[in-house]
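call fold(seq) -> tokens
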Amino acid sequence: MSIIGWIILGAIAGWIAKAVTGVGEKQGCIFNIVIGIIGSVVGGFIFSYLGGTGVTGFNLYSLAVAAVGAVVFLAIASLFRGKE
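ret:
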């Protein structure tokens, strides 16, 4: 996947994670992209550990993997930061 694909996938996954968790509501598009890309990596590790595949390209499965990873990342990060 190209860098543009990662940015678009990251933005969408970050937005989904932010909507689900309510963390970082005051942050902008760059926050969504960064959280989504980190979520892609985290989700890839989680799904690979469970026997599935990680991010495989620009498709709905990869978006789901990235969004799950981003939600997990935001949940763990909020534990360390406390409540917003």
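Residues 60-81 form the longest helix (22 residues).
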